[in-house]
């Protein structure tokens, strides 16, 4: 690694001029990397997330192989549940499974407000270790309240998130209690990550596409505005990303996030037209990475054409790197993005 610090990702977040389009990838440290698979043979996922040395090692893996413009802390959206008194497991090819999903008012009132440095010291220690090693910015992250609530109420991933949506409509006061507590924990967790050295943060709202724009504005937008409003004074750019959110883009823009992450279901130029003056992250279909190098190049060029050289474009996939992605295609993608429009 060179000594020179590459800040083009941070510059793009602030919609400043950059020499080339910056690129990082969700799940850039993951199963498509043979070195990650070897490590996973020895350590379960939760151990990788809760050991600062292992989390730092995994975070660095893709940076040792590729010229990416940012690192994202290796962790899981559910890690804050450890501080909230919620037992869970991380199951291979399934994701988080909550041992006792929230079913009653008592369950919700029993959730704890976290003290990040005391409850999750390994996260902040991972960040401090990484900042000593990295010459690109480090992104911290947390799940957004709706997505965390969805896991807690559904017990894991779900096809339609009907339980959590039913709670939202049928018990609005209880829903607000849950959402407020989750918002408080998200603010505390991201503040602690920024104070430990994270130079940007991403709010993952993986399941928010399950709600309508009207419901989003009424029941979720105020809490998102509160979170982003409380984090803004710390100065780290805030990225807000969700999947299946084509109908929610304008409402997501109203949160005040610096960067809106868009998935592959909406063309980038259309998203930008709708979002107006903000930075955008995205948005190539991750499945295209399973095709030939020619397809990867063509799809990346298409996204770059749609970005049209506007300030504030951060190249990413529309969701995480798929486990079967050939590592050489990741190299092709990075080279194509850094070369620019042909």
Low-pLDDT stretches are: none
- Radius of gyration (CA) equals 19 Å
Total separate domains = 1
**Widest sheet, order of strands:** 1-4-5-6-7-8-9
> Which architecture per CATH?
Alpha-Beta Barrel
- Report how far apart the termini are: 28 Å
CATH class: Alpha Beta
Q: Could you name the CATH topology? A: TIM Barrel
Class by SSE composition: alpha/beta
Could you please describe the fold and organization of this structure?
It contains 16 helices and nine strands. The radius of gyration is 19 Å and the shape is globular. Helix 12 links the parallel strand 5 and strand 6. The chain has a single domain, classed as TIM Barrel (Alpha-Beta Barrel). It is α/β, with parallel strands linked by helices and 342 residues long. The strands form two sheets. The protein has a seven-stranded parallel β-sheet with strand order 1-4-5-6-7-8-9. A two-stranded antiparallel sheet has the order 2-3. The relative contact order is 0.14.
Helix and strand topology:
Layout: H1 8-13, H2 34-42, H3 45-50, H4 52-65, E1 71-72, H5 80-84, E2 88-91, E3 95-98, H6 105-109, H7 116-119, H8 121-133, E4 138-143, H9 145-154, H10 162-170, H11 172-196, E5 200-205, H12 213-231, E6 238-242, H13 249-253, E7 259-261, H14 268-275, E8 279-281, H15 293-307, E9 313-314, H16 327-339
Parallel strand pairs: 1-4, 4-5, 5-6, 6-7, 7-8, 8-9
Antiparallel strand pairs: 2-3
Main attributes?
single chain; about 350 residues; alpha/beta; TIM Barrel; 7-stranded parallel sheet; two-stranded antiparallel sheet; 16 helices; 9 strands
